[in-house]
Amino acid sequence: MATAAAQRTARADGTAEADAAAHEALFDAAIAADERIEPRDWMPDAYRTTLIRQIAQHAHSEIIGMQPEANWITRAPSLRRKAILMAKIQDEAGHGLYLYSAAETLGTSRDELLDKLHAGRQKYSSIFNYPTLTWADVGAIGWLVDGAAITNQVPLCRCSYGPYGRAMVRICKEESFHQRQGYELLMALSQGTPEQHAMAQDAVDRWWWPSLMMFGPPDDESAHSAQSMAWKIKRHSNDELRQRFVDASVPQAESLGLTLPDPELRWNEERGHYDFGPIDWTEFWEVVKGNGPCNEQRMTQRRRAHDEGAWVREAAAAYAAKHKGATGAADGPARAAGGPSAQQAGESGKA
Ligand code: BYC
Asked: Residue ranges of region Disordered (predicted)?
């Protein structure tokens, strides 16, 4: 039986004169049927633009997010902690790669996206503009920041756009490990000396509110939520996911023996959720605009890392060109023309 996706491809391939309304109807039917949209399927321009915006922002967050934690690699308190932290940071680099690759299937390139990040034309998550002042911050990032990320990202595994949803499956598995290592690290500190306990509490006090801001502005100020939910890119609103995170975090904080820095936090029997105090949205927008404590430092470091890595990119491109020549001779031009952008342009195997 032909799925809506197959019909969509057949229609697009078979009738050059197919009008936009017919394409749109097939796209809408696929979304309504909870089918995946794939790179070669017709999609509205705004759907493509929204996905590029969100996936790029997500990818940028992953690679900028390596910086605050990398601050502690040389000062990790044991070889075991250092190895764990290095593995986690490498995972974040990997997440960036999966996500840039997913964005490339939409017709952009990693170079273009990085240029936009470096020029300040694309965002990354507000959370990474806060400093990591003590070792306990590594635990607080794992527990709270990765915990918030998982809450936000598990529903993205069901994103209507195939490459993004599939990338999220592996990312979420790894984030789950990250969250547990942060929890375990904080547990060790919380049950340690009074000084270690105080250090853990101080980290939680500083990271709690910025973690709640990660979910984005309140629903009535969220410019993109309604459309993104209609397209099944997002499955839940910012406020719904924030509430889910608060509800999960309170018992975890109790088990850790730490308190969350919100005097208004209490169980609401009627709602079946925890009530929590007001979020400082002025602070959030200031950080998003570039005025957070570490925005400048993060961007300077990112641009420097990019510039210093130019020789690696040149060497990789030279190697790929050489390799392409060798396999091109052996396998013919079809193999040589492979790769995501060629496939996406419909050239793969037919060049
Ligand atoms: N920070 O209409 P809205 C990680 C912007 S990586 C900065 O609600 P949307 C990790 C938003 O972009 C975590 N900007 O937007 C990595 C929009 O501005 P533009 C990253 C924010 O897209 C390493 C405007 O505010 N996770 O976990 O519907 C180590 C209005 O917002 C933020 C993702 O990226 C923010 N917090 O919803 C450890 C997940 N929030 O674009 C951990 C994927 C909002 O119009 N992204 N803005 O200029 C999403 O799920 C959604 O994009 C958001 C925002 C929920 C974040």
From this structure: 321-351
